[in-house]
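Lab meeting, action items carried over

1. Structure of the two-component assembly. Owner: GW. Status: complete.
Input record:
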Amino acid sequence: DAMVIQNPRYQVTQFGKPVTLSCSQTLNHNVMYWYQQKSSQAPKLLFHYYDKDFNNEADTPDNFQSRRPNTSFCFLDIRSPGLGDTAMYLCAAEPAGTSYEQYFGPGTRLTVT
Amino acid sequence: AQSVAQPEDQVNVAEGNPLTVKCTYSVSGNPYLFWYVQYPNRGLQFLLKYITGDNLVKGSYGFEAEFNKSQTSFHLKKPSALVSDSALYFCAVRDVASGTYKYIFGTGTRLKVLA
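Predicted assembly:
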């Protein structure tokens, strides 16, 4: 059973056209993450939420925004995608406490043309 | 600064042979170490972790890893490789020292198991 769900799995958008990626989790975990992963490179953390507390990485472009309206859902908004934003975007959820394991969704492959 | 190194971009092994995927780390304080696997067009899947306790950690799909403090290594192993083990493997350390608990991932090692 899917625990972290990402929609859509594949998204094509035009240069400069805003796009929203969505993530939902059935785990009821406090922490949610968004990562960007380019061509089999290591995932790069964009930001994360601890409950409603938002934590932005220092090198995350301003073009990337996020919303978490409730525990289950988290969105990644790219306001004006550039060609360099073509990547896999991974969402992950983690329970608060000492498990330290993250549960990843299958990812959304975004192509900017 | 916390860091993780995976010295091999790719490892090839014949099916049925033992496999090792190497990882070394550099951390301040006690290491929180992880292995994740990624199949094509999928997210990362947790394999195993070392936080404390026995140096030999057993994980999913028959994988295990040995924590070696003196060599600062956490190599992933499996006694008998399967073709279905072919995937991208990431070693990671949690950045506990900074208080952020973020994952620091290695660059990944592509494992190819040949039939």
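2. GW to write a short summary for the group page. Key points so far: Chain A touches chain B at residues 4, 6, 40-43, 45, 48, 88, 90-92, 98, 100-107, 109 (CB under 8 Å). Chain A has a mean pLDDT of 93.
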